[in-house]
Amino acid sequence: MSDDTIRLVTIGRIFRRRGRLLTILAVVGALAGYGTSLLLPPRYTTSASVLLPGAWEERELLTQAEIATSSVVVDRAAGALGWPGVDGIELRDRVSAAAADGNIVKISGTADTPERAQLLSDTVAEEFVTFAAQIMGDNTDPEKAAQPEALRQLVAKTTRRINELADEAGPGQSVESVQTRTELAKLRTALQEAVDKLDKADPEADRPGMVVMGPAARPAGEAPPTRPQLVVGGALLFVLFAVIGHLAAARVGRRPRTGADITAVLGTTLLGAVDVPGERAADRPRRGGPRALFRRLLGVDVRWDTPSPAASGDDESRLIRYRRVCARLRDRLPAPRRLLAVVPEGDETARRAAVQLAAEAANDASPDSSGGGLLTLRVVEVPVSRPMVPDRAGESGAVIVVSAGSWAAAELAGIAEACADAGHEVVGSVLASTVWVRPSRSAGRSGRSRRAATPVPAVGGDAAGGAK
Q: Is this model's pTM higher than 0.70 or not?
């Protein structure tokens, strides 16, 4: 996969070519979510609302919400509930409070049954109202609480004395009487303003107490995450991790896909690109065993990041490509022209292309320009993990046949080094691609096609058989 931005077509290709694996992982994730739901007991949550009458600032509401979940309130609620084995520390994790619009504090409680959740929310709300009333002055020091009232009585007594002095000054029209009554009126007004300021400075004196707005509603359903949510979440999580893993693996292990990249790794030239008609098992390895069977059951025995096969022309157009590759090989080699067609083990597309190339070389009876010999190819499959090529035994070199995007650069370089170690000069490489072929309307095929589909004796075995 290139460094370009991941496109939706890439995600779609993963779902299309790894559908069986993703389905299995989704089932496993759903089972994991179901198992988690069995370990987690059901939870029910409900809320009780407490109204705070009067004018409250946002900062004050947040303070009241913190008080509602304080250890004092929760411990009192735990004592009032009297649930066996449940103390204030455990209840503190089940209770939450938040300030809402309209001077309302919502107290939420979570329990294992709807009845307990309702009782918990109501009890905490009642204990919060009781505790808030205490800290706001209902149970303060009597002497300190009586000081404002004593001050008001003193102001009232002083006002009456001022009125008496104003009456004693008489209704005289002298300047002294008028000045005296004016000063007394100013003093009376100042005292009244002082009393008004004192009342405004103590809003708690006129602020009504908090009120619980009815009992909490009994919850009708479980609190999230519910069992269906855990099942669906587990399935989606496993599928998501699988998709991310595929993308990360493809980005880390980039593989040469174009002819230029492959020839650069092999250190040779590209002789041409040939097409292989697509078949259901064309890209599946032929190896057996429990591991191969397990990979086939999971649907991971073929790569998902190879390009989708393109549409192909007729048989004659595909055979022309093979003939051109054979012609280039004849031009490059002196007689006798015997070559090894090296194919990575497990690359079924490349193997079919090499077999077709060997058959086409054997069926082509046209002599070369010098009038000597035909081109003979022997197909050899080389294991990629530990590449081993047969020693040279009369061959003029080797041609490497690979499919695009199937092998890493290090694996291709290892095959080229194995050829050099066996004494074979790599004369070129052939890029094999899978194509889709429309069903032919005619029942028969041309003689050339029948001959091309028949392997010839020049096609040899794998590398383990040695040179022939």
A: no
Place of tokens 């069903």: 439
Mean pLDDT over the full length of the chain: 80
Angle at 176 between CA 170 and CA 181, to 5 degrees: 55
Whether residue 97 contacts residue 105, with contact meaning beta carbons closer than 8 Å, is answered with yes
Band of the pLDDT at 307, cuts 50, 70, 90?
low
The residue ranking higher by pLDDT, 316 or 447, is 316
First vs last C-alpha separation in the chain: 40
- Give domain limits for the chain: 8-40+225-252, 259-465
Residues 429-456 as b or e (16 or more Cβ within 10 Å = b): bbbbbbeebeeeeeeeeeeebebbeeee
Contact in structure between 15 and 22 (CB atoms under 8 Å): yes
> How far, CA to CA in Å, does 462 sit from each of 209, 381, 458?
93, 5, 13
> 74 is written with which tokens?
């929760």
Residue 175: exposure state from Cβ atoms within 10 A (0-12, 13-18, ≥19): exposed
* Mean pLDDT value across residues 157-163: 78
Distance CA 444, CA 89 (A): 85
One-letter amino acid at 207 equals: R
Span 440-462, average pLDDT: 43
**Nearest CA among 359, 411, 356, 350 for reference residue 381:** 350
Q: Which two tokens stand for residue 365?
A: 């009876």
